[in-house]
């Protein structure tokens, strides 16, 4: 088996297993952290965001790790993570500011399976495009605009509800004009920990592959494989409703 394919398979399987093995712990964590740090709500939201970024999540790790591996340097890998997390943060900050109108609608509808499938289809489409064009020597890595769109789509995943729960719990104790800070701090915390994950994976894979070209190809293949995983996960969740 080619080295790039082997690395992509290992990364994809590791992320898929991690995502499927970890129970949904974020909601109880939210309530526990707010109980202990309620007075320091800004710190509490930031810490919860950090935990979110460290938690294997189908709407962060498969995308940030895959795009990170395609980049030609650690700086660019962190930039690709920042673009993705920035899109997440903008959506979350906007929705936390508007939670009083949005929460009743989303609380009564489970959109997670559909988001999984949309993100999965997008990942596969981008991966196939990059792989096909790369053969012609035109593209080396994903366009940051694509990563931004992925971030906007992924922001509506399961942890979107966590941001709304946070906002609902905190709105009675903070000024209403600071509502946007909840999504903003959550996103910043998540970005910091996602960056740590991408940095560690990038350095580890580069050390194993000893060749950026191999790592870049592995990132593209991992994006394709994890896109397929996302679609199957979405279908499974939809059938389980």
TrEMBL record:
Superkingdom to which the source organism belongs: Archaea
Transmembrane regions: 33-54, 74-94, 114-134, 146-174, 180-201, 221-239
Keywords per UniProt: Membrane, Transmembrane, Transmembrane helix
Listed name of the protein: Uncharacterized protein
Organism: Acidianus ambivalens
């Amino acid at each position: 088996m080619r080295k790039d394919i082997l690395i992509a398979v290992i990364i994809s399987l590791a992320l898929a297993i991690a995502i499927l093995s970890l129970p949904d712990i974020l909601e109880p964590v939210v309530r526990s952290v707010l109980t202990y740090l309620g007075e320091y709500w800004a710190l509490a939201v930031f810490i919860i965001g950090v935990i979110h970024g460290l938690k294997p999540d189908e709407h962060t790790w498969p995308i940030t790790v895959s795009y990170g591996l395609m980049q030609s340097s650690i700086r660019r890998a962190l930039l690709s993570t920042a673009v993705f997390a920035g899109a997440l943060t903008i959506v979350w900050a906007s929705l936390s500011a508007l939670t009083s109108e949005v929460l009743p609608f989303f609380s009564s509808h489970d959109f997670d399976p559909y988001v999984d499938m949309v993100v999965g289809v997008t990942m596969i489409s981008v991966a196939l495009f990059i792989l096909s064009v790369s053969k012609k020597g035109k593209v080396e890595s994903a366009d940051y605009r694509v990563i931004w769109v992925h971030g906007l789509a992924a922001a509506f995943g399961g942890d979107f509800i966590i941001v709304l729960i946070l906002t609902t719990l905190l709105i009675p104790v903070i000024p209403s004009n600071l509502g946007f800070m909840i999504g903003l701090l959550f996103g910043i915390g998540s970005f910091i920990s996602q960056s740590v994950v991408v940095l560690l994976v990038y350095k580890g894979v580069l050390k194993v592959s000893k060749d950026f070209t191999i790592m870049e190809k592995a990132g593209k293949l991992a994006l394709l494989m994890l896109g397929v995983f996302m679609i199957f996960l979405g279908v499974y969740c939809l059938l389980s409703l």
